[in-house]
Amino acid sequence: MAEWCERWTTWVSSADRQTATARLDALVREHRFTIAVVFPLVGALTLLASSEGVLPPPFAYNPLFVLFGTMVMRLPLAAGVFPLLDRRATAALVALTAYSYGIELVGVRTGWPYGEFSYGVELGPMLFGEVPLGLPVFFFPLVLNAYLLVLLLLGRRAESALPRLLATLAVVLLVDLVLDPGAVAIGFWEYDVGQFYGVPWSNYEGWVLSGTVAVLLFDWGFDRGGLRRRLETCEFMLDDLVSFVVLWGGINLFYANWVPVGLAALLGAGLLWTDRFDFDLSETRVGRAVWR
Predict the structure, then answer these.
(1) CB 117 within 8 A of CB 111
(2) pLDDT at 197 (0 to 100)
(3) Element (H, E) at 142
(4) Which residues of 247-260 are buried (b: 16+ CB within 10 A; e: fewer)?
(5) Which residue spans traverse the membrane (predicted)?
(6) 129, pLDDT greater than 60
(7) Taken in order 34, 53, 71, 167, is the CA torsion positive or negative?
(8) Contact at 8 Å (CB) between 133 and 124?
(9) Residue 220 CB: number of other CB atoms within 10 A?
C-alpha cells in the first residue's frame, strides 16, 4: 500500500498529470451541452418510460444504462476535481467510499439512519446482493457538488468551519428533498413510511449524518484554496448539478411533485447566481454544427 501511495504521489506531480487534465478539460468543454443537458433529458425520458411501462425489457430500468448515464453526468465534476487529487484527497475519497457502503448496508439491514427502505430496481451490480456497487458514484458527488456550490455562494465566509458545514448541509438537504421524492415516484426505492412524497423525515436526518461525515472528510482531504481557484477557472465544474436539476426536476414535474419542483428551481437559481448555467453553445460540437 505504501508503495502504491508513493507511485501515486509521484504521478500526480508529473507532466503526465497536466496533460491528462488538459485533455479531460477539453473533452468536457467539447461535449458540455450534451453531458449537462442532453444526457439528463434522455435519462429522465427513459426512466419515466420505464416507470410507466412504456419501455419494454431489457431496456426498462436497464442497470448498465443507469450506471453509464450517471457516470457521464459526473464527468464534469470528476474532471474538475482531478488535478486536485493528491494523496490526502484520494484518501478522503477512499474513506468516504468505505463509509457510503457501510452506512448503506446498515440502512438496508436495520432501517437506521434513513428509515426502513428497499430497492425497487437494481442500480447496476449489487454488493452482497443488497447495495449498488456504484453507490459512491450516486452518493458523494451530490455532497461534493453542494460543498463546491457553498464555496462559491459564501465566498470568504466559507473560510469559517461552522457556516461552511451548516450551509453545505442545507444544500445537501435541498438536493435530497428533490432526489428522493423523484426516486420513489419512479420506483428506484420504497420506504415503509412515507411522510413527504413517500419519503420519511428520518431519511433526511440520515442525510444530515452522512453529509456531515462527507463535509468533514472534504475539509480534511482537499485544499479549499485549490478548490476555489479551480472553480474560478473551470466553468463546467458544477455541470453535474445542472444535470441533477434537469433530470430530477423533470421527473418530479411529470409526477406533479410541486414542492420538489420548486426546490429544484431554487437549486437552479443558485447555479444561475454563480453563472453556472453559462453555456456558450458556439464552443461545443452541437453549437458548431448548428452555426455551420
Answers:
(1) yes
(2) 97
(3) helix 140-154
(4) bbbbbbbbbebeeb
(5) 33-51, 63-85, 92-112, 132-154, 166-189, 201-220, 241-273
(6) yes
(7) positive
(8) yes
(9) 12
Residue 92 has what pLDDT? Answer: 97
Written as one string, the DSSP assignment of the chain is: -HHHHHHHHHHHTSHHHHHHHHHHHHHHHHTHHIIIIIHHHHHHHHHHHHHTT-SPTTTTT-HHHHHHHHHHHHHHHHHHHGGG--HHHHHHHHHHHHHHHHHHHHHHHH-TTT-SEEESS--SSEETTTEETTHHHHSHHHHHHHHHHHHHHHGGGGGSHHHHHHHHHHHHHHHHHHHHHHHHHTTSEEESS-SBTTB-HHHHHHHHHHHHHHHHHHHHHS-HHHHHHHHHH-TTTTHHHHHHHHHHHHHHHHTT-HHHHHHHHHHHHHHHHTTTT---GGGSHHHHHHH-
Three-class secondary structure of residue 56 per DSSP? coil
Cα 280 from chain centre: 23
> How many separate domains does the chain show?
1
Coil vs helix vs strand at 196: strand
How distant is the alpha carbon of residue 81 from its chain centre?
13
Q: How much is the average pLDDT of 77-103? A: 95
The reported pTM is 0.90
- The DSSP bridge pattern shows strands 131-132 and 126-127 to be antiparallel
Which of 110, 114, 105 is CA-nearest to residue 202? Answer: 114
Grid cell of 56 as nine digits:
419494454
Q: Within a 13 Å sphere around the CA of 109, how many CA atoms are in the beta-carbon half?
A: 10
Find the domain containing 200 and state its range.
Answer: 2-291
